[in-house]
Design goal:
The chain is mostly helical. Helix content is 49%, strand content 4%. The longest helix is centred in the first third of the chain and has 20 residues.
């Protein structure tokens, strides 16, 4: 087989361009982020032609990435599984030796290991939302975090909402999959659903729309619910609000990491993610789901509202302890 020379940066851009029609924007963003570490490593190792990549080098990258990123087993598996997909694509475009992808190794995880425990718990959520309610009422950041917490929806679904998807009189949101208009959602048509809203959240959305929301359209001529002056707020913008608002020093708590706010890099607007206590939108979703289950909302209702199967709900989202589950079951003993 005759290989055609290709450098890591060019390969990454071609790979992402090739897959942009089959993957969601969020997945493309994740692949770019994960594979960006591999491109950086190649640069450090003076690897400028992926034709020459070997299985031993891939193993060295795995060890480097594990140590450099201080990765958990689950994170290491995610990183290496994405790299394997990328190397397999390289083989198909004559950029790497055939079957090189089979030499990309990643950890085998038990179901317990293949979960993430990071979440915004209900106590923290109460503090965050109380701070936003008092000092940043009906701003885009406030609306974003309140919406994610109260609806348990993914950031991609929130990003996809239009003004017309909000029905204030009947108090619900209509989550729609519109890939041809730039707002695909997780699970595609299976992710479409109606989400009921509380009085409090509707009041917030009404005030946002009446007083703070910029009167803009996006590139498709649609009116986004979560809007900035430039149009539809980007998912990265929405993630940034989550990281910034969940820093303990932001909502009035002492820093649990003994950092000096005057010197801490995480106090910078664009570096909030570097705070060990700040959390992503997915951690807000996980915390909200756990809060709902602890509040004895039936699993079927939580599963449907959050658009997640009961099996995935139990493995990846339900962070209740065994004792908490037992005490909840105890309440049904009188019915036996």
């Amino acid at each position: 087989m005759s290989l055609e020379p290709i450098d890591p940066e060019t390969a990454l851009e071609l790979y992402l361009a090739d897959r942009e029609n089959e993957l969601t924007e969020a997945t493309i963003y994740s692949h770019r982020s994960r594979l960006g570490h591999f491109v950086r490593w190649c640069d450090e190792q003076s690897i400028d032609n992926l034709n020459e990549l070997t299985g031993r080098q891939l193993h060295r990258y795995r060890l480097w990435r594990r140590d450099e990123g201080d990765l958990s087993l689950a994170s290491e598996k995610t990183q290496m599984d994405t790299l394997r997909v990328f190397i397999r694509w390289l083989e198909q475009v004559d950029g790497a030796e055939q079957d090189l992808s089979t030499k990309v190794r990643s950890p085998s995880l038990t179901p317990e290991q293949n979960t993430r425990d990071v979440m915004l718990d209900s106590e923290q959520a109460t503090k965050v939302l109380a701070y936003l309610e008092k000092y940043q009422y009906a701003t885009l950041g406030h609306v974003t975090i309140a919406l994610l917490w109260h609806t348990m929806m993914r950031v991609g679904a929130a990003h996809a909402l239009d003004l017309d998807d909000y029905h204030p009189d009947e108090q619900y949101l209509d989550v729609c999959h519109r890939p041809d208009q730039g707002t695909a959602i997780k699970n595609k048509e299976d992710g479409e659903r109606l989400v009921a809203l509380s009085d409090q959240l509707c009041d917030l959305l009404d005030d946002w729309i009446a007083d703070k929301r910029p009167d803009v359209t996006d590139d498709q001529g649609r009116k986004p619910l979560l809007a900035s002056c430039q149009g539809r707020a980007h998912r990265t913008t929405l993630r940034g609000y989550c990281y910034r608002a969940t820093r303990p020093c932001e909502y009035g708590d002492e820093c649990p990491h003994d950092r000096d706010p005057e010197e801490c890099e995480a106090t910078d607007r664009d570096a909030a993610f570097s705070c060990p206590s700040s959390v992503s939108p997915h951690a807000i979703r996980r915390g909200s789901i756990t809060h709902s289950l602890n509040s004895e909302i039936p699993e079927n209702a939580v599963s449907d509202r959050a658009n997640v199967s009961k099996a995935v709900l139990e493995q990846h989202y339900d962070r209740r302890t065994k004792r908490e589950k037992m005490e909840q079951r105890r309440g049904y003993l009188d019915n036996l």
